[in-house]
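We recall that each integer encodes one residue's backbone shape. We quote one record:
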Amino acid sequence: MRLDKFLKVSRLVKRRTLAKEVCDQGRVEVNGKTAKASADIAVGDELTLRYGNQTVKVRVESLRETTKKTEAAELYTLLEQVPPDKAEGTSGRNL
């Protein structure tokens, strides 16, 4: 499955076009390497997403073409979530 589609179906990112933009900006890594939106992902891959000044790391548990909102969290396991005030390169201020 394409990375941008997984991000949308799992609801890690709200829209697929936004998922593509985040990937194009180099803010998504698959298994430690920067990935394009078209990258194929598989069960067991680890994704790292940087949202502004927050970092989220998840492991892919399942791949589905569509999901209900209540089932979306079953597609991945949250490994790490760095809150905005502890993310790298931040000064703790809101800009």
